[in-house]
Each structure stands twice: as structure tokens, then as C-alpha cells.
Amino acid sequence: xxxxxxxxxxxxxxxxxxxxxxxxxxxxxxxxxxxxxxxxxxxxxxxxxxxxxxxxxxxxxxxxxxxxxxxxxxxxxxxxxxxxxxxxxxxxxxxxxxxxxxxxxxxxxxxxxxxxxxxxxxxxxxxxxxxxxxxxxxxxxxxxxxxxxxxxxxxxxxxxxxxxxxxxxxxxxxxxxxxxxxxxxxxxxxxxxxxxxxxxxxxxxxxxxxxxxxxxxxxxxxxxxxx
Length: 227
What we know:
Largest sheet: none
Structural class: mainly alpha
Strand content: under 5%
């Protein structure tokens, strides 16, 4: 009798799982939400966010506000902001930036004042955003007010804040350029943006010899600047 031989078992390949949870798909889409510009897609995502009760999420809300801002839907962006019970400084900053991006500078200041009223402390990102809403001959007093707040809160040592302050002063006519120059002279840390903003301000106000002097003193220059 021939020895018993076991038949080789057929190995059936197990197909890889192709399903993904609805929450997982949503989270994947949310990663790039702040860069989306298709309003229909954004509204669809917004509906899913509301359905899953994520509209109060402090990670999602800023992304949604940014995306709606890119689509020039500031009204919807404000609506999203108002859904959040306790807005963070990041969310406030995002809405201020959205207002400026949509040329609603008055609204930007309203949000900034509301932020102070709610006891949310501005950070080093807040001031460059709100300073973008300043400028023009009539903006000098507002810039000076923000300058006082920056100094009081200890952000004058932050290079990004001081650069934004110098740039805003430089857009406020001769008086503003003079203030920008004074600030420039007392700064300890300066980068190429600091030098460029100050020099451009001097050029715009007609102080060409002073602009040339600073240009000659620059420790480094980029190709965009030339006098």
C-alpha cells in the first residue's frame, strides 16, 4: 500500500482591506483644508464637520477659516469663528488675517479689540497680522497705539514684530518714516527685511541721501534692493 500523501493545501490570498472609515477620510481631507480653494468642496467638508460635531475643534476651525478666506467668503469664515465657544489666539489670528486678506481692515480691528475684551493675549503672530491693516497718512496714530502695546507686552525684541512695525510706519507718510527710522536706530537685532523696509520708506519719502547711507552700511544685500 503506497504511503499516504497529504494533498498540498491551496493558499487563497487574502485581499488587502480597501475600506477606510468615514472619520479617517475626513481627517485626511482636513490635513490640506486650509489650502483648498474650491468652494463647493469646502462646503461639503463643512457639512461633514458639522455632522460629526467637529466645528468647535480648535485644530479644524482655523483651517476652515483660512480656506473660506481664500475663497473670499469672509461671512462664512466669521460664522465658523462664532461657532467656537472658546477661541484660541491662533483662531483669532487666523480671522484677523482673513479680514486683512479680504480688504476688511475695520473688521480686523474689531476682531483684535474683541480679542482683548475676551482676555485672549496677543502673541508674536497677532501684531504682524493687525499691522497689515494699518497704513496711509491717517494710520500713524493707530500704528503708534499698536507700537505701545507691543512694547508693553514685551514683543519689541521679536524681529518679525519689529519688521512689521517698521513696514507699517513707512506707509504713514513723512511722520511715519521718521518714526520707522527712530525705531530702526534703537533696534539691537536687524535682518535684511529690517534694512530693506527702512530704506524703502526713506526712498518713498524723498530722503534719498539717508537711504543711500543706510544702503552703504548694510552688512548684506539681496538682489531685490537697489538704489
